[in-house]
Task: structure prediction
Amino acid sequence: DIGFLNPEFANNRDIELKWKTYFPKDEDEKQRLGYCKKPKAEKMFQHLYLTYAKRFNKKYIRTGSLFEHPFKRIHIDNEKYLKQLIIYIHNNPVKHGICNDPFKYSWTSLNTVLSNKPTKLSRSFVFDLFDNRENYRSLHKNYEDNDDFRSYIIE
Result:
């Protein structure tokens, strides 16, 4: 059952008291004391993001969404491009100076594919694409940013 917020504590600085969930005894008590439904987390985050976007836009005199427009898509139309893209993505932290070795960067699927730990990634698909595990590893190790791939990059 969803709880309610007590309006008496709405402006209280004590966060625990402000957001404490109350369960009125009956409908009459709920109406009489003015309890309101406790908001759901997803609605609270939606409000947070919208408020942030509005303030950001106002501060920097701009309009529009903050989180959608910079992203563009290119259709992956062949296996060669898919392979290049996988290698490029895994080497991107090196290219941008975040790390020196893509195998030591924690926030990528590169090592997840190579490990034996349970995962939802389809290792067999990736290894079939690269012929085998060792070829996958060596192509990542010997990656060089080349011009063949530049026509696909949107940066």
Observations:
- DSSP finds seven helices and two strands in the chain.
- Strands lie at 4-5, 36-37.
- The radius of gyration is 26 Å.
